[in-house]
Amino acid sequence: MQSLAASARLLRAIRPVISNIHTRSWWNRRRAQFDWRCESLESRQYLSTIYGTTGDDQITLNYSTTNPTVTINGSSQSVNLVDLSIDGLAGNDTFIVNGHGARIGWYKPTSNQSHAGNFIIRKSTSSPVHFTNIESVQAIDFWKFALVTPGSADAEAVNPVTGGIRITGSSGGVTFAPLTVSSITRLVLDTATNDAGGSGNDSITLGTSGTTADLSATTLLVNSGVGSNTLNVLGQTSAIINTSFGSQLGTLLSVTVGEDSTQTPPPTGANVQFLSTQVLDSLYIKGSSQIVLPANK
């Protein structure tokens, strides 16, 4: 009995030690797991900013709801689009966003930097993909895509390039990285959203004087907003246009189709098809240019 009692007292004495060893062992394992998870999270936070090289880079974001990737000069990695940032560093860098059939996307240049901005994909509430030190941007394969200028006084030039349309210009006196769109059915030129607090005087020019430009593969949706706004269709440019957007529709937009010419007969002019009833400040048709209105409008 004395031996059993002594054994019981010894067991009670060492039980806290055993429990403590067990607890420490469990904590060490959990701490190791926690440390690993923290390291992984830190890695993802670090990778949320993806850098180009000091040379000329082609950086492509392939959008996917399940496994988006970024490819830099042929080398790819999976990414999380939340708080993703792209930094092209030095060189002449191009940032390409392939929507792979996504319904809508937005390119929003930064107001005070020429080579920076944000892409938003699929929903207006989606986390923006920020980019900086990028000399040109491309958007591919969206059902609709919008260029939203950051300032109140905007100037845009829209011209065809191989396989798409290129938009260059400035907003609030700051040049934005040119946008090229390909395989996009509808392109929104939104110079209205950020008109507040400024003149809102915008100019959009389609085509170049004396040249042929076919922009008709992509419907151009113009939201010009307040101010004194102009839309000029130059040369022998063909385009499909709708200006009936926003609270102002096109009531503060003056549209000129074609150019004056002293030639006899005048050269072939521009050709514009309007998608719906247009409410405009004015419409001028010059030379041999033509407009096409919807039936019964």
Key features?
alpha/beta, 2 domains, 22-stranded mixed beta sheet, 1 helix, 22 strands
Describe this structure in words.
- The protein has 297 residues and is an alpha/beta fold.
- It folds into two domains: 1-47; 52-292, no CATH class.
- It contains one helix and 22 strands.
- The chain has one helix at 2-47; strands at 49-51, 58-62, 69-72, 75-78, 85-87, 94-109, 117-121, 129-132, 136-148, 154-161, 164-171, 174-175, 179-190, 203-206, 212-214, 219-223, 229-233, 236-242, 250-257, 271-274, 280-285, 290-292.
- The protein has a 22-stranded mixed beta sheet that branches.
- β7 and β8 form a beta hairpin.
- It starts with a helix and ends in a 5-residue tail after the last strand.
- The relative contact order is 0.09.
- The model is unreliable at 10-47 (pLDDT under 50).
Could you give the topology of this structure?
Elements lengths: L1 H46 L1 E3 L6 E5 L6 E4 L2 E4 L6 E3 L6 E16 L7 E5 L7 E4 L3 E13 L5 E8 L2 E8 L2 E2 L3 E12 L12 E4 L5 E3 L4 E5 L5 E5 L2 E7 L7 E8 L13 E4 L5 E6 L4 E3 L5
Parallel strand pairs: 1-5, 2-6, 5-8, 6-9, 9-13, 10-14, 13-16, 14-17, 15-18, 16-18, 17-19, 18-20, 19-21, 20-22
Antiparallel strand pairs: 2-3, 3-4, 6-7, 7-8, 10-11, 11-12, 11-13
Share in helix = 10-25%
The secondary-structure class comes to: alpha/beta
Coarse shape: elongated
Query: Segments where pLDDT lies below 50 for 5+ residues?
Result: 10-47
Q: In this structure, how is the largest beta sheet organized? A: 22 strands, mixed
Radius of gyration: 29 Å
**How many alpha or pi helices?**
1
Mean pLDDT, to the nearest integer, reads 85
* Distance linking N and C termini: 110 Å
Tell me the strand percentage band: 35-45%
Kindly state the number of beta strands. 22
Order of helices and strands: HEEEEEEEEEEEEEEEEEEEEEE
For the record, the count of structural domains works out to 2
